[in-house]
Write a structure and sequence with these properties.
The protein is of the alpha+beta class and 200 residues long. It is built from 4 helices and 10 strands; from the N terminus they run αβββββββαααβββ. It has helices at 3-11, 105-114, 120-127, 131-147; strands at 16-26, 29-38, 43-44, 51-52, 57-68, 71-84, 88-91, 157-163, 170-176, 184-190. The strands form 3 sheets. Strands 1, 2, 5, 6 and 7 form a 5-stranded mixed beta sheet that branches. Strands 8-9-10 form a 3-stranded antiparallel beta sheet, with no helix packed on it. A two-stranded antiparallel sheet has the order 3-4. A hairpin with a 6-residue loop joins β8 (157-163) and β9 (170-176). The mean pLDDT is 87.
C-alpha cells in the first residue's frame, strides 16, 4: 500500500482520495497540504439532497482538517455547484464539511471539545485558527447541546438576576430546581428579566 493510500484511509473523507501531499511553510507555521480527487461523479444538492451526476461549475476549495502529527492540515479539492431541477443553482453538500465554514466536521468537534477545558484564545492558538472562528464553533456547539437538553421531569423553575461589573448591567439566569438531571442552569440572558421584552 502506498503512502497516499494510507493517508486516504486515515483521512476518512467519504468519496475522496489523496493524490498528492506537500509541506508548505507559511510564516512560522508549516502545514501539510493534501490534494484530493473524487472516487466518482456524484454530487448532492445542499437544498433537497438530490443526487446528480453532472455539475454546473467548480472552484478550488481549501479547508482545515485535524492536525497530522505536529502539522496543521489543509485539504484542497474541487467543490462543485450543481443545477438542481428542484432548487436551481446550489453548492453541493459534502458530508465531511461543516456548512458555511472552511473546516471539517472532525476539526469542529475537536475544537468544541477543547473549548470545554480551555479558553477560546488558547484553543485558537493550539488549532491555528482565528479566535472568531473558534468562538462561533463553541457557540454552535452550546446551542446544539441546549436544543438536545432533556427537560423531562422539570416542574419548578428558579429565576435570579446578577449584577455584572459597574453600572446597571445585569444578567438573568433561569434554573431547574428539580428534574432528571437534578438542579441545573438552563439559560443565561442579558438584561434584567422583567425588563426583557421576551418575557413580557
Amino acid at each position: 500500500m502506498q503512502h497516499k493510500d494510507y493517508l486516504t484511509e486515515l483521512l476518512g473523507c467519504q468519496g475522496f482520495f489523496v493524490v498528492e501531499m506537500e509541506i508548505r511553510k507559511e510564516g512560522d507555521i508549516e502545514k501539510v497540504i493534501l490534494f484530493l480527487n473524487r472516487e466518482r461523479k456524484r454530487y448532492v444538492c445542499s437544498g433537497c439532497k438530490r443526487v446528480l451526476t453532472t455539475y454546473y461549475d467548480s472552484r478550488i476549495q481549501e479547508v482545515r482538517h485535524l492536525h497530522l502529527w505536529k502539522y496543521p492540515t489543509v485539504l484542497v479539492f474541487e467543490k462543485k455547484r450543481i443545477n438542481c431541477p428542484n432548487c436551481g443553482i446550489k453548492t453541493e453538500s459534502l458530508e465531511f464539511l461543516e456548512r458555511y465554514a472552511r473546516i471539517t466536521k472532525e476539526l469542529a468537534h475537536q475544537t468544541s471539545e477543547l473549548c470545554k477545558v480551555m479558553t477560546v484564545e488558547d484553543v485558537a492558538t493550539f488549532e491555528c485558527l482565528h479566535w472568531q472562528t473558534v468562538k462561533e464553533i463553541d457557540k454552535r456547539a452550546i446551542e446544539k447541546a441546549q436544543m438536545e437538553r432533556d427537560l423531562s421531569g422539570i416542574t419548578t423553575l428558579g429565576v435570579d438576576e446578577i449584577s455584572v461589573g459597574k453600572g446597571h448591567n445585569y444578567l438573568h439566569m433561569i434554573s431547574s430546581l428539580e428534574g432528571s438531571n437534578g438542579p441545573e442552569v438552563l439559560y443565561i440572558g442579558e438584561g434584567r428579566l422583567l425588563q426583557n421584552e421576551k418575557y413580557k
